[in-house]
Write a structure and sequence with these properties.
Blueprint lengths: L2 E9 L8 H8 L6 E6 L5 H5 L5 E5 L10 H18 L5 E5 L4 E3 L4 H13 L4 E10 L4 E3 L7 E7 L5 E3 L4 E3 L4 E13 L3 H12 L5 H15 L4 E3 L9 H6 L9 E7 L7 H5 L3 E7 L14 E2 L4 H5 L19 H11 L7
Parallel strand pairs: 1-2, 1-4, 2-3, 6-11, 13-14, 13-15
Antiparallel strand pairs: 4-8, 5-11, 6-8, 7-12, 9-10
């Protein structure tokens, strides 16, 4: 039987308005314990962490002299090695890694548990997750080429795998298993002043003082060109209070009628039940949809001309060359979101 543990790192989570409490709460139902390398920083993060009995704190001090973000992998490995020291000798022990702005959705718990079992059986030692990068609001997904579509976030503990670089991923793995389980990344959705302060201070981990301001200015200019897709699917329930606190939308209002052109059998019944509409009508052809509803209809398999006329602008996948096509269910969520049709939590 697979045994699951969590590991992560943190510093100044309160000061920079990280969703670290939501991250830990989303991971807790899956794991026996979470190992956290914690720098006390200069805020109340440590006091907040001590409220979670399932977290084992590994006291640490960040070496701020390290550049290119290397301190992030150093701290990640401190947490990982502490976990291995306690649990890593077992063949069936796995570690799930979440950073402080990454959250799991309970809809994916069973998918993930089943996929870890499959990965173990197939001789895999690393699992790569889908990534949803939210940009400035909780309803805009960044899909430009610069955004990574997937990353390793679960590893077999009895392995030489380690975090490297700025802790975006891991190395020394032998075989990757790709799961449809998603990482909800909220790093760019937070209180405005905290976000600016976080970007400035995190920039110090990568750049010299003389280069930092130029890099930040260029980054903010590039950000204005960010390609996004609308998302009104569900968020992890632990995020509800935070989303409402930021005056963002938790769920769209229910529409009276939602028209979909395509084959409903291609989608899971669980997803279809969550469509937030008084009545969901599936049609074989666009001509079957009432004329006054055609601007709002969801075309699940758009033709070249549909895309040209912008009746549907949802791509098959993120823009990165590393991206895999989205699942049928997830693409339907984006297609419905484009027409302001939401989903029940």
């Amino acid at each position: 039987m697979i045994k699951l543990f969590g590991f992560t790192l943190l510093r100044n989570g309160v000061k920079y308005d990280y969703s670290f409490k939501e991250s830990l709460q989303s991971l807790a139902p899956l794991v026996e314990k979470i190992y956290l390398a914690l720098d006390r920083g200069d805020d109340t993060t440590e006091e907040e962490i001590k409220k979670f009995p399932f977290v084992k704190i590994i006291p640490s001090v960040w070496d701020m002299s390290l550049k290119k973000g290397l301190v992030l992998s150093v701290e990640t490995n401190i947490a990982l090695e502490a976990l291995r020291a306690d649990q890593g000798i077992e063949e069936n022990a796995w570690g799930i890694y979440l950073q402080a702005d990454e959250v799991l959705h309970p809809d994916d718990y069973e998918i993930l548990k089943n996929d870890i079992e499959k990965a173990q059986a197939e001789g895999c030692d690393a699992i790569s997750f889908r990534y949803l990068h939210f940009w400035l609001t909780h309803h805009h997904l960044a899909i430009s080429k610069k955004w990574y579509p997937n990353e390793i976030r679960a590893i077999k503990l009895k392995s030489p795998i380690e975090s490297w670089g700025d802790a975006q991923g891991f190395r020394n793995y032998k075989k990757i298993f790709y799961t449809e389980a998603r990482i909800f990344h909220y790093g760019h959705v937070r209180e405005k002043n905290s976000y600016k302060e976080k970007m400035h201070d995190m920039g110090k981990l990568y750049h010299s003082a003389e280069d930092l301001e130029k890099k930040l200015e260029k980054g903010f200019k590039d950000a204005r060109k960010n390609k996004c897709a609308l998302y009104f699917g569900t968020h992890p329930p632990v995020m509800k209070e935070r989303i409402l606190r930021m005056n963002d939308i938790w769920e769209l209002d229910k529409v009276e009628n939602a028209y979909f052109v395509g084959n409903s059998k291609k989608y899971s019944p669980e997803l279809l039940k969550k469509i937030k509409a008084g009545k969901v009508i599936w049609c074989e052809r666009k001509s079957d949809v009432p004329k006054d509803m055609r601007d709002k209809m969801v075309i699940t398999e758009p033709t070249y001309f549909d895309c040209l006329l912008k009746k549907s602008t949802v791509p098959l996948k993120m823009k990165s060359k590393l991206a895999h096509p989205w699942s049928n269910d997830f693409r339907l969520i984006l297609q419905a979101s484009e027409k302001q049709i939401g989903f029940r939590a």
